[in-house]
Structures are given as structure tokens and as C-alpha cells.
């Protein structure tokens, strides 16, 4: 089996195992030096259940840009989510899994002409706009498209604001754009907004939903019958976060402005909510430098790789020390900084951290690394991207194994530790004792 095939399989856990115990077993095996991820499929399923329970009226359309790892996309498709795509490439990734085009929203308000033509050829007819030029392009290239007008609805302090780039003014611009669309004979079927990625202000959703109601009413006055409300993204997904306050605000606003009796279809575009906590990253300390007042640790992933989220997503990462050989660490912590592997001085993961004294060969683990990490990572300076090892519990495997686009081929029950599967046969014959030892330890 080729390495690429191994990486795209989901490995079924033994009953006593978890994603974290697998990660630590890979470290303890001594055969892994490169940084790597463990993807916990169970975390994706748990988040989906949470969404359906807290936001029962809102259909999730996963934002592919957040993390487009094939296993994550297949699991979400099997769970029945829709997909928010921003480009031809993302549309193709979703369609190639066999997802119906009507489960996709082309949620990029400024689309290239070639990509509008591609969407039309593939039957992806639901798309957003926020300006006159886009309406004229769509009139020429895809006049039968179902359009959703995107309004600006900024939260007070989102992790990543988006309103400076997308979204028309709900009061001054939206009515004018709707009237132009009507003149052009285009089908505007709904309203969308995005309060900003990583929103922590529930009232932002209430304001936006209230503004959308006014636009629905204006659209009705000029002859439109809108049927879709898109709540966009912004939903937190780290392990120490909750959407309780957001969901309470959203449900209250929906009940007030869009009662169920109206039949409006409500969707949203969560990204980090599904992806963030599912991925845990393990990095190896390959060098260290003792300075006057702190220690500098150099690890084998950095801001040009997985930690680009620090630059582009304003992420705050939390290091967890894991010593090689499971030796006991001192109770004290010391000031340190953590640096990536490249020769760029900007490649700094953390400028001020507190960790127990660590040695070369020890590991630093980072949880909540699934959002805006791998999709933006590069191989700058020749350093490889971390491999992803996906795991699933047996009960969840039984739940998902026959749900399209997943099948039995996507899962592995091989008793051999899967991180050894990438070795060549020649390498395996040179270390029979280690292989046997690991096999015994895992069983």
C-alpha cells in the first residue's frame, strides 16, 4: 500500500485507546521524528451532534477553506453537511466525493468569470454577491443562478474581521442592489452575512438577523420571494470554548424575525467549529539554546507550516510538554521561547512561554490545531508538511462505515501500528525486535 493511501485511511482504535494515547504511542515508539497530526474523527462527530442539538433550525455548510483535509471532508459529507466553497478547486474537491451540487454554496462575493462558468457547468447554482459588477457578470455567465445578497455585519472584536473586504451596507446598498437584480431579471433568493471568524459577541448575530429581516421585507415589496437566510461563520471550536451563548442569541433572533411558519431555510458556514479541536499536532525539539534569562527551543514545524495560523488567523497556541521516554519532568517551569525550523528570523511560534526544562528529542504537543493550519502551510526552506494520522472508535466506525462517501476501504483494522506502515520492507527487516515490541505494547 502506498503512503498516500495509508494517510487517507481512518484507523480503528482499540477499546482502551484515544486519539491522545495514540499520539503519545507514536512518540514513544521512537520511529517518528517529523512533526505529525492525529485527527480524531470522534471530535468531528461530537461537534456535529452539538450543532444539531444547539441550532436545530440551522443547516451547517462547512467552510472548506478552514481545513480541506480529505478525511475531514468525507466525514462531514457522510454526516450530511453542506459545503461552503470559495473557488473552483474547492467545488471540485466536494463534487469529486459525490456530493450533490445543491449541497454547495459558492460563497465568494467576488468570483472570477471562469469560475462562475465552471459553477454553471457543474450545477452549483447557489452563490453570493455584494456589488453591481458581480450582478452583471452573473447575468452574462449564469443568469439562472440563485443569488444570495451578502450584507456587512461586523462583530465588535472578531478573531479575523471580514467586513472590510466583503458585504454591502444593509441600509444604503442592499435595496439598490436588489432593484438592479430585479431589473436584470436575476433570481435573488436570500440574504447572507458573516460577523467575522472566531466571533465572541452573541449580539452580532442578533443585529445581523434583524437587518436581514428588513432586507427580506424590502425584497418582497419589489416582487422577490426570499427563502434562504445564511448566517455565515464565526463559530468557535476549540476544546475550551462553547457555542451556547451564540446559539441562544441566534435561536432567539430567528424566533423573533424568521418564525418557523414562514418556511425560510436557515443555513450557516461553520469552519473552525468542526475542524479546530479534531486535530492535535506533535512537534519535536531538535535544537535548544540557553540564553541569559530564558531558553530557546527549536521545533520541526513553524509559522511557514502549521503555525501560519498565528500570522493569518491570530491564533493563540498552548504548548504541552511531553518528554521522550516518559521521564518525569521537574515541577518547576521556566521562561522560554519556541521557534520554527526555517532560517527566517520571523519563524517564531511563541515569544514567551512557560515550560518545564526540556531536552533535545523531547516533544511539544499543541491541541486545537485544525483550523487554518494545514491548508495554508507551505514547504518553505524545504521542510515537509506534517503527516496526518486519523483515528476513530469502533462504535463510530460502525456508524459511519457505510455512509457515502465513506466505505470499508476508508478504514483500517490492521493490528500493526499504522505509523510503521510507511516503512519500506527493507527497513522493517532491520528492526524486527522493535516492531515486535510495539505490536505487543499496542495489543
From TrEMBL:
<keyword id="KW-0620">Polyamine biosynthesis</keyword>
<dbReference type="InterPro" id="IPR000183">
    <property type="entry name" value="Orn/DAP/Arg_de-COase"/>
</dbReference>
<feature type="modified residue" description="N6-(pyridoxal phosphate)lysine">
    <location>
        <position position="65"/>
    </location>
</feature>
<comment type="subunit">
    <text>Homodimer. Only the dimer is catalytically active, as the active sites are constructed of residues from both monomers.</text>
</comment>
<dbReference type="Pfam" id="PF02784">
    <property type="entry name" value="Orn_Arg_deC_N"/>
</dbReference>
<dbReference type="GO" id="GO:0004586">
    <property type="term" value="F:ornithine decarboxylase activity"/>
</dbReference>
<dbReference type="InterPro" id="IPR029066">
    <property type="entry name" value="PLP-binding_barrel"/>
</dbReference>
<dbReference type="GO" id="GO:0033387">
    <property type="term" value="P:putrescine biosynthetic process from arginine, via ornithine"/>
</dbReference>
<feature type="active site" description="Proton donor">
    <location>
        <position position="343"/>
    </location>
</feature>
<dbReference type="InterPro" id="IPR009006">
    <property type="entry name" value="Ala_racemase/Decarboxylase_C"/>
</dbReference>
<keyword id="KW-0456">Lyase</keyword>
<comment type="pathway">
    <text>Amine and polyamine biosynthesis; putrescine biosynthesis via L-ornithine pathway; putrescine from L-ornithine: step 1/1.</text>
</comment>
<comment type="function">
    <text>Catalyzes the first and rate-limiting step of polyamine biosynthesis that converts ornithine into putrescine, which is the precursor for the polyamines, spermidine and spermine. Polyamines are essential for cell proliferation and are implicated in cellular processes, ranging from DNA replication to apoptosis.</text>
</comment>
<feature type="domain" description="Orn/DAP/Arg decarboxylase 2 N-terminal">
    <location>
        <begin position="42"/>
        <end position="276"/>
    </location>
</feature>
<dbReference type="InterPro" id="IPR022653">
    <property type="entry name" value="De-COase2_pyr-phos_BS"/>
</dbReference>
<dbReference type="InterPro" id="IPR022644">
    <property type="entry name" value="De-COase2_N"/>
</dbReference>
<feature type="domain" description="Orn/DAP/Arg decarboxylase 2 C-terminal">
    <location>
        <begin position="37"/>
        <end position="370"/>
    </location>
</feature>
<keyword id="KW-0663">Pyridoxal phosphate</keyword>
<comment type="similarity">
    <text>Belongs to the Orn/Lys/Arg decarboxylase class-II family.</text>
</comment>
<dbReference type="InterPro" id="IPR022643">
    <property type="entry name" value="De-COase2_C"/>
</dbReference>
<dbReference type="GO" id="GO:0005737">
    <property type="term" value="C:cytoplasm"/>
</dbReference>
<dbReference type="InterPro" id="IPR002433">
    <property type="entry name" value="Orn_de-COase"/>
</dbReference>
<dbReference type="Pfam" id="PF00278">
    <property type="entry name" value="Orn_DAP_Arg_deC"/>
</dbReference>
<protein>
    <recommendedName>
        <fullName>ornithine decarboxylase</fullName>
        <ecNumber>4.1.1.17</ecNumber>
    </recommendedName>
</protein>
